[in-house]
Amino acid sequence: ELKVEQNPLFLSMQEGKNYTIYCNYSTTSDRLYWYRQDPGKSLESLFVLLSNGAVKQEGRLMASLDTKARLSTLHITAAVHDLSATYFCAVDMNTDKLIFGTGTRLQVFP
Amino acid sequence: GAVVSQHPSRVICKSGTSVKIECRSLDFQATTMFWYRQFPKQSLMLMATSNEGSKATYEQGVEKDKFLINHASLTLSTLTVTSAHPEDSSFYICSAAGLETIIDGGYGYTFGSGTRLTVV
């Protein structure tokens, strides 16, 4: 059974600081997705990582994928309050369905 | 880009009644649709996968007689929660994928806006 674990589950960080969220998964997959969810809302797609070594950046967020280690990271640079949300990674099972990670609730304070 | 419309956004129903949630792909043909359930402060749990014209495939532990899924066309899938009870109260989210959403040989998934179901 595929397990997708994120850590930390909760992250409180000061504006301007950097931090990394980790996503570990238990079976082979070459496709990994990152999403953002605001309270009461659905998912916003952030990144699609399609191969080993893939790195994508958008604004203050950068995501990477290491398929050999079964690990993806979401790095936050110089956090701002607007980044406060819950972040999910999701692994494509190669049967074209997504299994979601446990989620990381990020709170950025002044 | 690909857009998925989900309705209603909120619904309150009495215990024992049935509720239907619709998920429509507006500008692409969704060959596959997925239904997720999310409890407060938890992750999304995949309930079932449906392909147009076929019976849905349910994940382990999901009652197929309780959560009826119909995917009769390439643009519409419905989830009906039958004989709803308070424990069915949750946030339900659909996702759709099709040929137009393929990225590098695999699906790009588009999510609906979600439905907040409250059973009283």
Describe it for me?
The complex is a heterodimer of chains A (110) and B (120). Chain A is mostly beta strands and 110 residues long. In chain A, 0% of the residues lie in helices and 56% in strands. Chain A has no helices and eleven strands. In chain A, a hairpin with a 5-residue loop joins strand 4 (32-37) and strand 5. The radius of gyration of chain A is 13 Å and the shape is globular. The mean pLDDT of chain A is 93. Chain B has 120 residues and is mostly beta strands. Chain B is 0% helix and 53% strand. In chain B, strands 2, 4, 5, 6, 9, 12 and 13 form a seven-stranded mixed sheet that branches. In chain B, strand 10 and strand 11 form a beta hairpin. The radius of gyration of chain B is 14 Å and the shape is globular. The termini of chain B are far apart. At the A-B interface, strand 5, strand 9 and strand 10 of A face strand 4, strand 5, strand 9 and strand 11 of B.
Question: What's the short version?
Answer:
The complex is a heterodimer of chains A (110) and B (120). In chain A, 0% of the residues lie in helices and 56% in strands.
- The percent range for helix content of chain A is under 10%
Instruction: Tell me the radius of gyration of chain A.
Output: 13 Å
The residue ranges of chain A in which pLDDT falls below 50 over 5 or more consecutive positions are none
**Alpha-beta classification of chain A:** mainly beta
Mean pLDDT of chain A: 93
Number of E-type strands of chain B = 13
Greatest chain-chain contact: A-B, 22 and 25 residues
Kindly list the characteristics that best describe this protein.
heterodimer, A: 110 residues, mainly beta, 6-stranded mixed beta sheet, globular, B: 120 residues, 7-stranded mixed beta sheet, 4-stranded antiparallel beta sheet
Give the topology, please.
The complex is a heterodimer of chains A (110) and B (120).
Chain A lengths: L3 E4 L2 E5 L4 E7 L6 E6 L5 E7 L5 E4 L2 E6 L4 E6 L8 E8 L5 E3 L3 E6 L1
Chain B lengths: L3 E4 L2 E4 L5 E7 L6 E7 L5 E8 L5 E2 L8 E7 L2 E6 L8 E8 L4 E2 L2 E2 L2 E2 L3 E5 L1
Parallel strand pairs in B: 2-13
Antiparallel strand pairs in B: 1-3, 3-8, 4-5, 4-9, 5-6, 7-8, 9-12, 9-13, 10-11
